[in-house]
Amino acid sequence: MAVIKRSGDREPFDGDKLVRGVISASKGRPVEPADVDQLVADVEEGARAGGGTVSSEWVGLTVLDRLRQLDQVACLRFASVYKQFDDIGDFEREARLIKLDRE
User: Fold this and answer.
1) Percent above pLDDT 90 for the chain
2) Of 55, 63, 12, 56, which Cα lies nearest the Cα of 36?
3) Measuring CA to CA, which residue among 10, 27, 21 is closest to residue 62?
4) Which residues pair with 38 in a beta bridge?
5) Can you say how many angstroms the Cα of residue 35 is from the centroid of all Cα atoms in its chain?
6) Distance (Å, rounded) from C-alpha 42 to C-alpha 74?
7) What whole-number distance in Å separates Cα of residue 92 and Cα of residue 67?
8) Going edge to edge, which strands form the sheet with 53-55?
9) What is the pLDDT of residues 41-82, one digit of tens each?
10) Handedness of CA 31, 45, 64, 57 (dihedral sign)
11) Do the Cβ atoms of 30 and 36 come closer than 8 Å?
């Protein structure tokens, strides 16, 4: 499987890299290791179903969607890195989106 990065470069899909990112976003949160493993397995399965080549955007948005269901704070943390937040306004907008999605 391969991931097409924003730059257009291709790299092999790295489930361990994804696990590290989700664990980092979930640090100190009530997200179980089994939940992280399932999230990554679901992303990998979706990538395979999509033909084995996906964009990094697809991966990021899929992780955000799953994290939104698991833990809102972890989702916001992941979004801040994935979406490259520049200021507090970015956090505020994303927090509103997460809150609206949960309601």
Assistant:
1) 70
2) 63
3) 21
4) none
5) 13
6) 18
7) 17
8) 10-12, 2-4, 53-55
9) 999 999 999 888 999 999 999 999 999 889 999 999 999 998
10) positive
11) no
**Percent of the chain clearing pLDDT 70 (strictly above):** 98
Angstrom distance (rounded) from CA 93 to CA 3: 27
Q: Are the C-beta atoms of 75 and 67 separated by less than 8 Å?
A: yes
Is residue 102 scored above 80 in pLDDT? no
Q: Is a pLDDT exceeding 70 seen at residue 100?
A: yes
- Spatial neighbors of 99 by CB under 8 A, at least 6 apart, are 72
- Tell me the CA distances in angstroms from 70 to 1, 28, 75, 81, 97, one per residue in order: 26, 13, 8, 18, 15
Q: Which pLDDT score is estimated for 27?
A: 95
